[in-house]
Specification:
Layout: H1 2-20, E1 27-31, E2 34-37, H2 38-54, H3 59-70, H4 73-89, H5 95-109, H6 114-125, H7 129-149, H8 158-167, E3 173-174, E4 177-186, H9 193-208, H10 213-220, E5 231-236, H11 242-248, E6 260-261, E7 265-275, E8 278-279, H12 282-311, E9 315-317, H13 347-362
Antiparallel strand pairs: 1-2, 1-9, 3-8, 4-5, 4-7, 6-7
Helix pairs in contact: 2-3, 4-7, 5-7, 8-12
């Protein structure tokens, strides 16, 4: 009776524990040992919607854009995991690049204390510092795989570029314009203006002495263009602020300005190129033509590569979810481990198998012979 009470108590406790179990995340896909949850998809969707709103999409336009994006969210998540898996297979390492990116962000934030900087990252991104760092690492890894395995294998021959140039010269008629790079030393409210001006003067002097301006911009500029090594593109006559246009318009290639006070900081400009009006030369526009011919080929090649990764991957997708980049013929049926039934066997079957193995050990295999290696005392 006492044993029955104990068992009943254990059973009741088990039922109580089971009642308290809640599902934290629903797994909707498995990719080479990694998982995608419904929460992952929802977070991606919210990020995409926020990005579209920042670009000015609202109302019906936003709804239509999100409806189209929803079709490919799972595909994009699977793409990312497949590329990350490939990066591991290729033994790619981007730790130094991650460290450099984070160091650049910390330098621009002006926060020297590591703990305070990590809190700054959490406040700005809504993510833990380690998650943010891991995201940066995964982005760099996937980009490296794409460059190495896809982009590097797309070649544009010079003859092909020349043929395009000869047939599309109207595209390369130019207005006079100047190409610029910039460095901005910001002076936010409360900042020491004299110190900022001194820093700008030092950077301008270094640029004038021949130090690489793109490196100076990337490592010191407070402008978003620092991510593009200070490149701010081309400007036609009348498109720049008058005082800036007057400073750079008639200057030769390679000219670096003195710091210009622009109100929120000190701006240093370098003239990368000054293009005259008329038909641009072939060599001048060769990079532009290469991009024109490369871009239409890149996306199809990338999609073919990702399809092949799917063919060779372990991939399962839960019913009700669809991978819009699925490989034709690839079985991605979801297998629930709880539904896998163990094989059952009787004692008689085990005994029969053992007897069968013993008999096989005694039956000579055709085409073979046995030799006696022992001796016998019987005559």
């Amino acid at each position: 009776m006492r044993l029955q009470l104990v068992l009943a108590g254990i059973a009741a406790a088990g039922l109580a524990s089971a009642a308290e179990i809640t599902v934290i995340e629903e797994i909707i896909a498995k990719v080479n040992g990694e998982i995608i949850t419904r929460g992952d998809v929802e977070r991606t969707r919210k990020q995409m919607e926020a990005a579209m709103r920042e670009q000015g999409a609202t109302g019906q336009r936003l709804q239509e854009a999100m409806a189209e994006a929803d079709k490919n969210i799972l595909r994009e998540r699977i793409d990312q995991l497949l590329l990350q898996s490939k990066a591991k297979e290729l033994n790619l390492n981007v730790d130094s690049e991650v460290a450099k990116q984070l160091a650049d962000i910390q330098r621009k934030s002006g926060i020297t204390d590591p703990d305070k900087f990590q809190q700054f990252v959490r406040d700005q991104t809504g993510m833990s510092y380690e998650d943010y760092k891991n995201d940066r690492k995964n982005d760099l890894l996937t980009n490296r795989v794409i460059r190495q395995e896809v982009a590097s294998k797309i070649t544009i021959k010079r003859e092909e570029a020349q043929q395009y140039y000869d047939g599309h010269k109207d595209e390369f008629q130019r207005e006079e314009r100047v190409y610029l790079r910039e460095i901005l030393v910001a002076t936010p409210p409360g900042a020491d203006t004299a110190q900022a001006q001194k820093k700008a003067k030092d950077l301008a002097d270094r640029g004038k002495k021949g130090e690489k301006f793109d490196d100076l911009a990337r490592n010191n500029s407070d402008s978003p263009s620092a991510q593009q090594d200070g490149d701010i593109g081309a400007y036609e006559k009348g498109k720049l602020r008058p005082e800036i246009e007057k400073t750079v318009w008639d200057q030769p290639r390679g000219y670096v300005t003195d710091p210009i006070n622009v109100g929120n900081g000190f701006l240093i400009l370098k003239v990368e190129e000054h293009q005259k009006a008329g038909l641009a030369g072939f060599e001048e526009v060769l990079p532009e033509i290469t991009n024109k011919l490369f871009n239409p080929r890149f996306n199809p090649e990338l999609r073919r590569y990702l399809t092949q990764l799917r063919v060779n991957a372990f991939l399962e997708i839960k019913p009700g979810y669809e991978d819009s980049g699925a490989a034709p013929g690839k079985n991605t049926a979801w297998v629930d481990p709880a539904e896998i039934k163990p094989e059952t066997i009787t004692k008689e079957q085990v005994a029969a198998r053992q007897r069968h193995r013993r008999l096989l050990g005694l039956v000579p295999i055709p085409g073979t012979s046995t030799q006696s290696t022992g001796t016998s005392s019987s005559r």
